[in-house]
Amino acid sequence: MTGCSKSIALSKPVIPANLLQPCPTLNRLEQDTGKEVLLWAVDTVAKYNECDVRLDALVEAIE
After folding, report:
1. The whole model's pTM is what?
2. What pLDDT sits at residue 49?
3. What is the spatial distance between Cα 55 and Cα 63, in angstroms, rounded to a whole number?
4. Tens digits of per-residue pLDDT, 13-53?
5. Cα 53 from Cα 55, distance rounded (Å)
6. Radius of gyration over every alpha carbon of the chain, rounded to an integer in angstroms
7. Short-list 40, 38, 39, CA closest to 29
8. What does the alpha-carbon distance between residue 44 and residue 11 come to, in Å, rounded to a whole number?
9. What would the 3-class secondary structure string for the chain be?
10. How many CA atoms within 13 Å lie on the side-chain side of 11?
């Protein structure tokens, strides 16, 4: 009866290379002026959001 059995081979999902990139390094806050803090915060939030989107996409691709 081996002719009726099916073998299932699981393969790894193909994950796009951009999802496998590490999150960008965050800049250090060098000065404490309002302008510098604002620029640093905008940059940090943008980097976080980019990394968050990639992580969510990676989790979705794996599931």
Report:
1. 0.69
2. 96
3. 12
4. 788 888 888 999 999 999 999 999 999 999 999 999 999 99
5. 5
6. 21
7. 40
8. 37
9. CHHHCCCCCCCCCCCCHHHHCCCCCCCCCCCCCHHHHHHHHHHHHHHHHHHHHHHHHHHHHHC
10. 3
